[in-house]
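Risk register update: the risk of archive-format incompatibility is retired. Evidence:
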Amino acid sequence: MKSNRKRHKSNISSASSSQAHQTNLTQTTNTNEPRESDSILEDAIPSPSSTQLLSGPTPEADEASKASDTKALNKALKLAGDALSTTYKSYMPPELSDQRDKRGNRMISFRCKICGTSINRPTSDSSCGNLKKHASNCYRKLTESTSNRSLAEMGIKGTGDINPAEVNQLCAIWCAEAARPFSALVDASHQAILHPTIKKLLPGRRVVSKDIQMIYLAIQQNYKAVLNAHKGALYLGVDAWQSPNGFDILGAFIYRLVEDNSGGSKLEALPLDFIQLAQSHTGEYLARVVTLVVEKFGIQDKVSPIVMVNELKKRKWVRFKGEPQWIRCFAHVLNLIVQGILRPFGSQKNSKAHNETTTAPDDSDDSSSEAGDFEEHVPKITQAGDDSDSSSDNEEDESGDELDENNQEETEFLSLEDIENASDEEESDTYTTTGCKQTLAKFRAVAKKLRYSPNSKIEFVQVCREKGCQTPHNIERDVRTRWNSTNAQLRSIIRCEAAMWANLFINQ
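Archived output:
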C-alpha cells in the first residue's frame, strides 16, 4: 500500500512540474512578442510630431514655408528662362501649384500653351522629361486635327461652325444676292479669305447656277402661302431691262404693307419671278407673260394696282380696274419733264414725229432716243470702260450707246407748249438758249474726246493734278438712257473747272 501511495504522489509532482515548465515557456514567448493591446495604446498616445500637425503650423513655420516656396519658384523661373532646351517654350511661365509633394512643399506648375493642361513638378526635380513628352503629344494631336478644327477652337469667337451640306446653298446665295459672277468663287484671291470648310467643298459655276434655280423653286410654295394669307392690297410692279450678256429680262415684284415689330406698318417688296423674253415685246406677249406669273402664285384675283414705266405701248395690255389703278412710274415722269426742259438746249434728240427743233448729230454722245417698246427702252450695256485716273472712285459705266430708233413715234415727249408759266428770254439775259446749247454741246464733245482718246485723257489728268482739282479726274458722259446723266456731267465739269478752261481742251 505504501508503495502505491508513493507512486501516486510522485506522479502528481511530476505533472505539476511539467505544467509549471509549460507556463514558464509561454511567459517567455509572450515577453518576446509585442501584444496587440500595447500597439493600440501606442497609437492612442499622440507623438510630438502628430500633435504639431493637428494643432496647425505655427506662424514661424508658415513664413518659412512661404519663403521656401518663393525661392523655389524663382529658381524655376530662372531655369526656364536660361535653359537651352526648347521644351519650356511650349509652356507658360511657371507658377506655384496648390498641390504638394511628399515633403509637404508646394509643387511648380507648368501650363501648356497648346491644350492648357498644367503639369506639376516637385521643386527638387529639375528634369524636363515629362514636360517634353506632354508637349510632343500635344503638337502631334494638333497637327493631326488642324484640318478639322473650327474657328472657335482657334480662339476666334462670334463665328459658328459651317455645315458642309450648306456650302452649296451659301455660295448660291452669295452670288445671287449681289449679282456676282459665278466664276468669282474660284478666284485665288477670293479663296484666300474663305472658310476652310467652304474652300474644301467649293462648287463650280455650273453647280451654282443650278443651285440658284433649285433654291427659287424650293421657296415658291412658301411664297404662295404667304401671299394667299395676306389680307390687304397687293401691288404688282413690272419692269424690263437687258443683262450685260444681252438677254432681255422681265421682272415681276409684289409690294405689300406688313406689320413690323413696333406695331406699325412697313412696305415690303417680294420678287416673284424673272422671265427671259424670247419674242417681240408686244402688248399681247407681255400680258401673257405677266398673267402666267400671277396665276402661278395664285394672286390673279388679289392684285389691285400695277406699277410700271410710263410708255404708251404698255397701256395696250393693262386691263385691271381702269386707269386709276395704274400707278405711273414717278421717276419716268420726272425724266420726261427734264427732257422737255433740256430739249431746247440740244441735250436730247427729237423724234420724227416731233420736229420742232433740230440738232446736229454730234450734239449728244448718243445717237438715239428713248423708245416706247421694251426692246428699245432696255439699254444694251457694253463692257468698254473709261481710261480713268487711278484715284477715281466712281467711274460711270458706258451703257446705252446704241439703241434702236424704230417705233419712236410711240415715245412720249414733252415740248415747250407743255410747260406752264415759262419765262420769256430777254436781250439782256446772260444765259440764253443758244448760248446754253453751245456750251452743253462743247461739254459733250470734250467728254467724248476724253472717252475715245487715251492721250487726251492722260493730259487732262495731268492738268487736273497741276490745277489741284478734286478727284475723280474725269468728265462723265451725257448718256441718253441715264436719266440723271446731264446733271452728273455738269457736276464733273464744275469739279474739274480749272482744267476745263485750259486752252488745250477748250480750243479743241
